[in-house]
Amino acid sequence: MLITSQVVDRLPEAPNRFRDDRGLQRLLARHLSPEAQRWAEPVLDRMGAASAGELDELAALADRNPPRLHTRDRFGNRVDQLEFHPAYRKLQELAYGQGIVGAYYDRRVRQILRQSNEAVKFAQGYLFSQAEQGLYCPICMTDGTAYLIEKYGSEDQKLRLLPHLTSESLDSLWEGGMWLTEKAGGSDVGATETVARPTANEHVHALTGEKWFCSNAGAELVMVLARPAGAPEGTTGLGLFALRRHLDDGRLNHLHLERLKDKLGTRSMPTGEVILNGSLAEPVGSLSRGFLQMTDMLNLSRLYNATASVALMRRALTESIRYAVVRHTFGHSLLSYPLVQARLVEMLVEQEAALHLLFWLYSWRGQADSTQERLSRMLTPLAKLTTGRSAVDQTSQAVEMHGGCGYIEDWPLARLLRDAQVLPIWEGTTNILALDTFRAMHKEKTHEAFFEFVDKHNADEGVRLAAGELKSSLEKLLSRPGQPGVLPWCQQATRVFQATVLGLTAQDEHSNQVAEHYLKRHFACDRHSLCPSYLEHAVRHHQSLLGLP
User: Fold this and answer.
1) What does the H/E/C string look like for 188-215?
2) Is residue 214 a contact partner of residue 273, using CB atoms and an 8 Å limit?
3) Helix or strand run (H / E) with residue 152
4) CA of 155: how far to CAs of 160, 285, 390, 524, in Å?
5) Cβ–Cβ under 8 Å, residues 182 and 257
6) What's the rounded Cα separation, in Å, for the pair 512 and 41?
7) pTM for the complete prediction?
8) Closest by alpha carbon to 391, among 492, 315, 321, 304?
9) 3-class state of residue 257 by DSSP
10) Contact indicator for 355, 24 with CB cutoff of 8 Å
């Protein structure tokens, strides 16, 4: 009998993702009131435990068994039914049942959480999406649909639709969707060709067109952009509509789900092509402001995207540490090598810096302060731009850390890397986000609020110097926003802000070391030398930074 030795025969038990995340706990303590913390901690603890256990097992199973489309029943009738694996249905039950959307629309919960409502909601999603990225997209769109109905819908629409969108039971839940993309447009939403024509009912329009990339293709209530007959071209002529997948009698609402996309990642969730053949839909808000209303939803979606990105960064770090602790090579633990120590510290620090940025955005969301609104308008696309790329980079590093094990589907790393690649694409590609940032600076002077915040809260000489360089180069870039220099400007602006808030919130040994390493890596004078000081700092402090005994 052939005996083979094992590379690794057992990993340390997966930790509760909430209890194990010191960075998350510190941010919650800073941004939440004591009352909000008392409500949030058991909720997050339950999600942290599930994310490391049952959710992760179900996510792997759902990824291997993606949904199937059945266009017709046995009699030949068009039904466009989606068949989900039981693992996906169980994921839905666990997520929505733990209030990942509905709890944050509950008046009693809102009264407890107050300004922390968004931060707690995204913290729960951050823990969930470390296990499952596919379903987190429908969760985002369900929340976004509810958000638009609550903010722009009529009182009648709120009474009829919100209870379904915020239900914690699958029996009454209507998942939301957002169908924007068409072949003619892609990111250019102004090229939308879907037309909305009035019907005999003044509150209903008939929509005709083809939506080419519909995430959560089986959603029951979808937000759709369409051009009312006779409306002008471009984004100004678009209206926002709420479209139910089924009519009141249970029949499909004059739409065909042509096919499901064969995707690289997020395979558990259905993405498809939908043809609207006079589908009945209700206008939401003013028909002349449809694009602006959807843009409001887009900012929410970008925060979801960034949250999913930072979650994958954290998962990549966690898996890398678990493997490095038990993997032995050349007679030593993988974790004993300084090169590995430095890489893991780099992953940790970049992930915590990104999480700090997001928590400031969570805490500002919905606030009346004009300075915070302008900062959010600038930093939301920047957060999505930088975290999407970082998620791909760090999941790739985790695959490499595992060597051949990371490359095979028996381990979770290949799935994480596949799922990560959608994050720089969805809700605006990297170039689109850079242009959007510069558009906001040009129109709304958002950079003035940015520099005011950085100047007020930053004492580090290297960061101040970098901020000065950003200021001096901005006038030229604003006059020609399509030139390649806008992207490095956006990336450096993000680093400047992250360094500022890391320093602002550093109050203990761990957070001080994270801030110090980030400053050394990105702003120290020797950062471009062959032996930069941040590498020495990483090796010297790797045990305390990584939480190792």
Assistant:
1) CHHHCCCEEEECCCCCCEEEEEEEEEEE
2) yes
3) helix 136-152
4) 9, 11, 42, 56
5) no
6) 24
7) 0.96
8) 315
9) strand
10) yes
Pairing verdict, β 255-260 and 221-228 = unpaired
Residue 118: Cβ-neighbour burial (10 angstroms; 0-12, 13-18, 19+): buried
In one letter, which amino acid is 419? D
Residues 6+ apart with CB under 8 A from 505: 26, 27, 30, 356, 511
Distances 167 to 121, 192, 224, 256 between C-alpha atoms, Å:
15, 32, 22, 27
**What is the β-pairing status of strands 328-329 and 271-283?**
unpaired
| Other C-beta atoms lying within 10 Å of the C-beta of residue 487 | 16
* Sequence letter at residue 228: P
Q: Which residues contact 181 (CB under 8 A, 6 or more apart)?
A: 211, 212, 213, 214
* E strand spans, 131-238: 176-179, 195-198, 205-215, 221-228
Q: Which of these, 493, 490, 496, 428, lies nearest to 460 by C-alpha position? A: 496
Question: What single-letter amino acid sits at 316?
Answer: A
Q: Which two tokens stand for residue 516?
A: 């110090």
For the chain, the first-to-last Cα distance in angstroms comes to 40
Q: Per-residue pLDDT for the chain (549 aa), expressed as one digit of tens each?
A: 555 555 677 888 899 999 999 999 999 999 999 999 999 999 999 999 999 999 999 999 999 999 999 999 999 988 999 999 999 999 999 999 999 999 999 999 999 999 999 999 999 999 999 999 999 999 999 999 999 999 999 999 999 999 999 999 999 999 999 998 888 756 678 788 999 999 999 899 999 999 999 999 999 999 999 999 889 998 899 999 999 999 999 999 999 999 999 999 999 999 999 999 999 999 999 998 999 999 989 999 999 999 999 999 999 999 999 999 999 888 888 999 999 999 999 999 999 999 999 999 999 987 767 889 999 999 999 999 999 999 999 999 999 999 999 999 999 999 999 999 999 999 899 999 999 999 999 999 999 999 999 999 988 999 999 999 999 999 899 988 788 999 999 999 999 999 999 999 888 999 999 999 999 999 999 999 998 999 999 999 999 999 988
